[in-house]
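User: My collaborator sent over this chain with a note saying "see what the structure looks like." That's all I know about it. Can you take a look?
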Amino acid sequence: MKKGVLYGIGAYVLWGFFPIYWKFLHHISAFQLISHRIIWSFVLLMIIIFFSKQWTDFRALATLKTLRIYFIASILIGIN
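Assistant: Without extra context I'll predict from the sequence alone. Here is the result:
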């Protein structure tokens, strides 16, 4: 089987189990949950960038225009 098909099946299986996962987190506030997701995603991204030695590429892409677009996108995602 091709990798793409396996990735697709894996994504659908995970998507199917998400309701069970969210059910276990009913006692946690939405604000705390989104805060943890943001912080841990950032930490993981920095670790991946550091160990893959792509720090200079990452810094080169961080222009003011790009940061502004990402900021607006993050606000819209957070509101959603």
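A starting point for your reply to your collaborator: The mean pLDDT is 87.
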